């Protein structure tokens, strides 16, 4: 495989005495802050630059100023994770000279370290081996060279070429991608981006993400590379990151005000997001600037920008304002900016082709004052049609048709406007069809049949609608048949044809196309499936009774094609064609069936409901087994039953505080279904008030029914819950949530705490199936409100956040969750009584500006205050702050929990990690102090955990300590910790094997630990971390050994 000439050009380039960028200070904000944060001693071993692959002599450079910058080997995050940087405090000096004058440390990177002779030899041998196509030897040599000096870009280039020659494109890109960090040159990053695009496989999205990263590095080096900003914005838009693309274009407009190349895509993005006002504001700012200039001086603002700006008015239906803006901008571009008198004219004579007859009749018009081309002839045809559309929508029909006729719809010659402006023909025709100018619309629709790009199904459907309105049945039929023949899946055309033939009295043809439409509809995905009979309980019951009769008849009569229809999955073939509901049931009934069916349809709903409920119980086992036909029938029945239940207003009173009192007229009136319309009702209300004042009960509790149509309310609740679960399994989240919401609002369950609990448990089960993090957050908040100050409610919130949390946009540490949990903490602090031993005797009212809200009531309706501080709540809120990188704030709550439970290992671990994580932040004052504080709590955590006899807890200690060492860049201690973790993992595996075969267990060790010994095993996580450490240090054999033993499934 041939090597990339561009990459070899870098490898064979001659050494340069000054190979560093020297941009101005305003262009290096990000890099300068990063370089100021790095001390000289910590990066001296990382800042070097190679100038030759052939072992040429490296000349030293003299760095005496702050203007020479050499990029480090890694970007900010990598440097922070690998280098223990020294703190630079304002009053701290690194050393003094003889006169005790403080020496100011140099800013920026130091002189690059000269590569050793060993590196040069390895690089030269690797290059020779690569040229000789000995890729394995070249690969081994270049890896050794990179291990000696990873800052030299040419070594990474050679490694990339070797991988590419071996056909490993992904590794080749990764090597080049890694090596680009060694040079602070935009050209390198751009070349890497181009190679990524050239070598991108099917996963274009992943490749574009890498390209965005490369472009970001270029912009960090030179923020004024607006061409790269344009590219990055376009890629973000392609990836669907519209918000990022908008921010990029806004940034471009800050540096390049009034740049229309950025303004056009920005306006398109705002239109997609529905923020028309922002798009108009940007364009108006741009227009106000350009209109102060002469049109000859303006190159960027063109007719296309006028078209875009005027189009914005249509989204807000401001057509007259759009006409006014179009006229003024067109005059300015045509050189008639001061000719504004035409704004007082109600018509568009200004844009006539000739002065006669209308323009000359205007009193102030002076022929010849402006060229004739600056009037009607100079207006682009696109803007003229838009002007006509706006006039049509404003009620000026004649002016609109005048503009549309400029398209010359009757001209179909080879050079006609039809073939160049087909989109304008369609726009004009659609606008006329919308206001029912069908004959005029057809003049522009008909020519489009001869243009391939516009002769599509929507055109013929629009033509058919116009022909039908004009009474041309022959052409209407032709257009619909054309669509049906061209598009085999178009249901709309077949439905229109069915209605058309029905109106014409051609029943057979109508049935034919309805059958085709029904067949197409059945092929749609199950998520778009609708109940066959909707909420009609009678029809659905008759449907299942017909199937039962047909099954019974099959045993009595010989099955012939002329008498018994074929059945598939319990549904007759004739019935399959009635899915949409237009085709009458085929006449296949046995003698007497029709009469029986009519009798069944007259049965009361209660009997049909009980019959369907029994049928649903019969289908339920098959539905739970996943049989598709049984699931469809079960869903149809459940939908009909629930519709009937939800249609009963007694269960859903206007005021939720109203309880269920029965099905009587009085109960319905109290529920809000009936109104007091006569004197008897008023007398009844008076009687009720007198009974209430005398203490007599209104309704006997024993008289309140506990069933509906003979089905108890608990069974109805089961139908609601299981129906929602089945829908969630099919991805129909909205309908599932709507069903559960209806159950929660029903008065028979709204006032029942056990029933409400079941509903919300089912609610978060559906959200789990749908992976709906927003809904899970809402449900967990409900549990924390209803069961306030209950530790398990807070633990449920944490569990649900962990199950479906999105690391990129987690609701766990979002602002609403943070505020809600803070209110919970304040509620506990407010409701707790003051400490009698405290010298401060302040009341809660004097401490808190607002009363904390209590949400849980006891059986007597009184709010339940907190009895003691909940440690789990404090730790939970601390972790929310920790997840948001607010480590110092998190420590406040961790220490409060520590005061209550000083030997809790989770609290000790959280405090230790907070200190260590804060030490790695740029704003930290004393890193060494913070690290030592964190390690002290980590040691206390080890002490507590070491007292446990559970293997997993001892393994957890070793793993967490190893992670801390790796975080601090102390790799050798991390390796020891991970190895101990793997050793304990082998013991865990042995115990697991014993537990699987109880006969081999001696003693009671396994039996005692079985309940908690199999919670978690960190072996694979430790093995992966160990693999990464070995790989970074070049220990390939150890890396391979760990991988084969622990990471191979």
From TrEMBL:
Pfam families per the UniProt record, alphabetical: TPR_16 (PF13432)
Cross-referenced Gene3D superfamilies: Tetratricopeptide repeat domain
Residue ranges with Acidic residues bias: 48-72
Entry keyword rRNA processing: no
One BP term from GO: transcription by RNA polymerase III
Renumbered residue ranges of the record's region Disordered: 1-72, 89-114
Bias (Low complexity): 38-47
Keyword Secreted: no
Superkingdom classification of source: Eukaryota
Keywords from the UniProt entry: TPR repeat
Extent of the signal sequence: none
InterPro entries: Tfc4/TFIIIC-102/Sfc4, TPR-like_helical_dom_sf, TPR_rpt
Compositionally biased spans, kind Polar residues: 10-29
Repeat region (TPR), residues: 871-904
GO cellular component, one term: transcription factor TFIIIC complex
Alphabetized PANTHER family for the sequence: GENERAL TRANSCRIPTION FACTOR 3C POLYPEPTIDE 3, TRANSCRIPTION INITIATION FACTOR IIIC TFIIIC , POLYPEPTIDE 3-RELATED
UniProt name for this protein: RNA polymerase III transcription factor TFIIIC subunit (Tfc4)
């Amino acid at each position: 495989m041939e090597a990339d000439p561009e990459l070899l050009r870098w490898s064979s380039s001659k050494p340069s005495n000054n190979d560093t960028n020297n941009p101005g200070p305003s262009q290096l904000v990000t890099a300068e802050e990063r370089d100021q944060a790095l001390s000289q001693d910590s990066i001296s071993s990382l800042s070097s630059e190679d100038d030759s692959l052939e072992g040429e002599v490296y000349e030293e450079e003299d760095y005496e100023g702050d203007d020479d910058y050499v990029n480090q080997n890694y970007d900010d995050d990598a440097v922070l994770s690998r280098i223990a940087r020294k703190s630079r405090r304002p009053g701290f000096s690194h050393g003094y000279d003889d006169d005790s004058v403080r020496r100011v440390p140099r800013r920026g990177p130091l002189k690059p370290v000269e590569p050793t002779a060993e590196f040069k030899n390895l690089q030269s041998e690797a290059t020779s081996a690569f040229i000789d196509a000995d890729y394995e030897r070249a690969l081994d040599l270049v890896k050794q060279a990179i291990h000696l000096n990873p800052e030299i870009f040419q070594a990474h280039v050679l490694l990339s070429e070797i991988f590419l020659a071996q056909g490993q494109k992904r590794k080749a890109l990764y090597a080049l991608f890694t090596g680009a960090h060694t040079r602070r040159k935009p050209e390198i990053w751009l070349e890497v981006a181009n190679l990524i695009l050239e070598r991108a496989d099917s996963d274009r999205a992943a490749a574009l993400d890498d390209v965005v990263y490369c472009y970001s590095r270029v912009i960090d080096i030179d923020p004024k590379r607006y061409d790269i900003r344009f590219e990055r914005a376009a890629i973000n838009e392609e990836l669907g990151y519209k918000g990022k693309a908008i921010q990029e274009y806004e940034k471009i407009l800050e540096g390049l005000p009034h740049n229309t190349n950025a303004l056009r895509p920005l306006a398109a993005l705002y239109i997609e997001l529905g923020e028309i006002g922002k798009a108009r504001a940007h364009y108006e700012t741009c227009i106000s600037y350009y209109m102060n200039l002469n049109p000859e001086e303006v190159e960027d603002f063109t007719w296309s920008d006028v078209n875009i700006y005027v189009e914005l008015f249509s989204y807000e239906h401001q057509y007259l304002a759009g006409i006014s803006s179009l006229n003024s901008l067109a005059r300015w571009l045509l050189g008639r900016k001061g000719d504004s008198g035409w704004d007082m004219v109600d018509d568009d004579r200004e844009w006539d082709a000739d002065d006669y007859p209308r323009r000359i009749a205007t009193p102030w018009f002076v022929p010849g004052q402006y060229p004739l081309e600056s009037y009607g002839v100079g207006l682009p045809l696109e803007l003229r049609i838009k002007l006509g559309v706006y006039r049509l929508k404003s009620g000026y029909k004649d002016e609109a048709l005048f503009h549309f006729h400029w398209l010359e719809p009757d001209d179909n010659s080879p050079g006609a406007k039809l073939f160049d402006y087909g989109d304008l023909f369609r726009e004009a025709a659609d606008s006329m069809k919308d206001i029912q100018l069908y004959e005029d619309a057809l003049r522009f629709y008909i020519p489009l049949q001869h243009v391939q790009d516009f002769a599509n199904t929507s055109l013929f459907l629009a033509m058919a609608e116009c022909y039908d309105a004009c009474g041309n049945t022959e052409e209407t039929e032709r257009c619909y048949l054309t669509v049906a023949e061209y598009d085999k899946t178009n249901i709309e055309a077949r439905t229109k044809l069915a209605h058309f033939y029905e109106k014409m009295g051609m029943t057979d043809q109508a049935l034919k196309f309805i059958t085709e439409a029904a067949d197409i509809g059945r092929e749609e995905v199950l998520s778009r499936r609708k109940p066959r009979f909707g909420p009609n309980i009678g029809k659905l019951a008759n449907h299942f009774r017909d199937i039962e009769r047909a099954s019974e008849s099959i045993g009595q009569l010989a099955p012939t094609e002329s008498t018994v229809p074929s059945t598939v999955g319990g549904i007759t073939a004739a019935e399959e064609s009635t899915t949409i509901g237009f085709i009458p049931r085929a006449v296949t009934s046995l003698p007497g069936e029709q009469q029986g069916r009519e009798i069944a349809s007259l049965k009361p709903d209660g009997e049909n409901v009980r019959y369907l409920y029994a049928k649903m119980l019969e289908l339920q086992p098959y539905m739970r087994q996943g049989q598709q036909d049984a699931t469809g029938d079960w869903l149809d029945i459940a939908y009909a039953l629930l519709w009937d239940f939800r249609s009963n207003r007694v269960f859903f009173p206007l005021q939720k505080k109203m309880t269920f009192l029965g099905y009587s007229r009085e109960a319905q009136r109290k529920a809000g279904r009936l109104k007091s319309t006569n004197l008897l009702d008023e007398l009844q209300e008076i009687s009720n008030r007198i009974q209430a004042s005398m203490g007599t009960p209104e309704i006997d509790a024993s008289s309140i029914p506990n069933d509906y149509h003979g089905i108890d309310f608990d069974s109805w609740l089961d139908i609601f819950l299981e129906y929602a679960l089945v829908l969630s399994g099919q991805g129909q989240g909205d309908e599932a949530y709507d069903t559960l919401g209806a159950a929660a609002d029903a008065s028979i369950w709204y006032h029942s705490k056990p029933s409400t609990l079941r509903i919300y448990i089912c609610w978060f089960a559906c959200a789990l199936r749908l992976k709906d993090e927003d809904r899970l957050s809402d449900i967990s908040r409900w549990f924390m409100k209803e069961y306030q100050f209950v530790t398990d409610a807070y633990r449920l919130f944490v569990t649900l956040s962990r199950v479906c949390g999105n690391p990129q946009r987690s609701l766990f540490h979002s602002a609403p969750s943070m505020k809600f949990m803070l209110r919970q903490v304040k509620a506990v602090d407010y409701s707790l009584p003051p400490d009698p031993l405290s010298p401060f005797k302040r009341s809660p009212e004097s401490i808190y500006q607002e009363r904390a809200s209590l949400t849980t009531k006891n059986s007597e309706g009184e709010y339940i205050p907190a009895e003691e501080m909940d440690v789990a709540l404090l730790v939970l809120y601390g972790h929310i702050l920790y997840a948001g990188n607010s480590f110092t704030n998190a420590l406040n709550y961790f220490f409060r929990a520590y005061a209550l439970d000083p030997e809790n290992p989770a609290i000790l671990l959280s405090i230790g990690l907070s200190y260590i994580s804060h030490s790695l932040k740029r704003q930290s004052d004393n890193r060494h102090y913070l690290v030592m504080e964190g390690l002290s709590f980590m040691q206390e955590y080890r002490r507590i955990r070491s007292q446990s006899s559970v293997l997993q807890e001892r393994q957890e200690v070793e793993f967490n300590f190893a992670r801390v060492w790796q975080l601090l860049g102390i790799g050798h201690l991390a390796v020891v910790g991970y190895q101990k973790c793997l050793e304990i993992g082998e013991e865990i595996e042995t115990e697991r094997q014993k537990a699987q075969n109880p006969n081999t267990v001696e003693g009671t060790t396994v039996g005692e630990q079985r309940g908690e010994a199999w919670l978690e095993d960190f072996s694979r996580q430790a093995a992966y971390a160990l693999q990464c450490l070995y790989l970074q240090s070049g220990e390939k054999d150890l890396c391979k050994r760990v991988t084969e033993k622990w990471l191979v499934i």
